[in-house]
From TrEMBL:
PANTHER family assigned to the protein according to its UniProt record, in alphabetical order: ANKYRIN REPEAT AND SOCS BOX CONTAINING 4, LD18443P
ANK repeat ranges per the UniProt record: 205-237, 238-270, 271-303, 304-336
InterPro entries tied to this protein: Ankyrin_rpt (IPR002110), Ankyrin_rpt-contain_sf (IPR036770), DUF3447 (IPR020683)
Name of protein: Ankyrin repeat protein, putative
Gene3D superfamilies registered for this protein in UniProt: Ankyrin repeat-containing domain
Domain DUF3447: 90-165
Record-linked SMART domains: ANK
Keywords (A to Z) from UniProt: ANK repeat
Length: 342
């Protein structure tokens, strides 16, 4: 999935849950916190109805749970003045969420105060990486012996933290295999120049750099890897090809590129799943259409005799169910439990 598509997907999900940002409109206490408007904030605290322990219920923020205190929100937004006022006037206690949010808020004054009462853990490192504040990342490494989370570097596109991890661990293989997520072919070239094998695989799933390039929709990186000898049908631990990985992440450009370079459209994974099965399982509507239009076997069955329709129905992917029916998938195929999809 492209970064633009991922962003659109996030906001579609956000809207579908009926969340509202009205609390952040002008002349609310949350607006005052967000912009660290101390005068406006104090005006709210002087009202008779004010409760310093009031909480915001929201799915917007990144920590597990959906209830957030005023002090936690000050930490999240880096609102130093509001934070200090709450601590001084109401003696609000600093909890671990405050500390975690302080790494996102990016204000050393708040973070240092939180560190007096809470000890950072690995989740703080993840949020420091998410904030793209390399000073926070190295601080946690040096002062608390916390390790850089490589998966977080990939998730939050933090190339600087990625190279710090490489410098610390010297793990050329692991970094090479994940490097395609940054969409920069020269990074892959760097690793190859340092004697990393182009077909190196990770220890957990035996994925190659090409599998990751396909998943993250990195067409230029795939072009580079294929031109240097990787096979378009490279297999992971469970026999998934790059096309399987592209299909499950709705990486349309990857799917098109792989098909144009000879990828088998009905390649089989360990349980005989095709890329179409994976696209249906992960509700990747555009990929489902593309695979069908390029000749995918719509009635292909897994080891359990399940078709793509079985996967779509199981995951309540109504649009995909309609697409499959429109393109003529059999409604009568039974799986090994003797059940049809509908």
């Amino acid at each position: 999935m492209s970064k633009k598509a991922a962003t659109i997907s996030f906001f579609e999900t956000f809207q579908s849950t009926h969340n509202s940002l009205n609390v952040h409109e002008e002349n609310t206490i949350y607006w005052a916190i967000m912009y660290d408007d101390i005068k406006l904030f104090i005006s709210f605290t002087e009202r008779e109805s004010f409760d310093a322990n009031m909480a915001l219920v929201s799915d917007y923020y990144p920590i597990t749970g959906n209830v957030y205190s005023l002090l936690e929100l000050c930490c999240y937004y880096g609102s130093v003045n509001c934070f200090k006022f709450l601590r001084t006037e109401f003696n609000l206690q600093i909890n671990h969420t405050c500390l975690e949010f302080s790494f996102l808020g990016g204000k050393p004054d708040i973070m240092n105060e939180c560190l007096k009462y809470q000890t950072p853990d690995q989740n703080c490192m993840v949020l420091a990486i998410a904030s793209h504040n390399i000073d926070f990342v190295t601080f946690l490494m040096n002062e608390y012996d916390l390790k850089i989370d490589l998966s977080a570097c990939i998730k939050f596109n933090n190339l600087q933290a990625f190279f710090v991890y490489l410098d610390q661990t010297k793990d050329l293989n692991e970094c090479y295999i994940l490097s395609p997520s940054f969409h920069i072919p020269s990074i892959c070239e760097y690793f190859l120049e340092n004697n990393v094998k182009i077909d190196a695989t990770d220890s957990e799933n035996e994925k190659t750099a090409l599998h990751n390039a396909a998943y993250y929709n990195c067409v230029e990186v795939m072009q580079f890897l294929l031109s240097h000898g990787l096979c378009v049908e490279e297999k992971s631990k469970y026999l998934k090809t790059p096309l399987h990985f592209a299909a499950e992440n709705n990486s349309i450009e990857s799917v098109e590129f792989l098909l144009s370079n000879g990828a088998k459209i009905d390649a089989r994974a360990y349980y005989m799943e095709t890329p179409l099965h994976y696209a249906c399982n992960y509700n990747c509507i555009e990929t489902v259409k593309l695979l069908i239009l390029n000749g995918a076997n719509i009635n292909a069955k897994t080891k359990q005799s399940k078709t793509a329709l079985h996967f779509a129905v199981k995951n309540n992917c109504k649009n995909i169910v309609n697409i499959l029916i429109t393109y003529g998938i059999s409604l009568n195929i039974r799986d090994k439990s003797r059940k049809t999809a509908l």
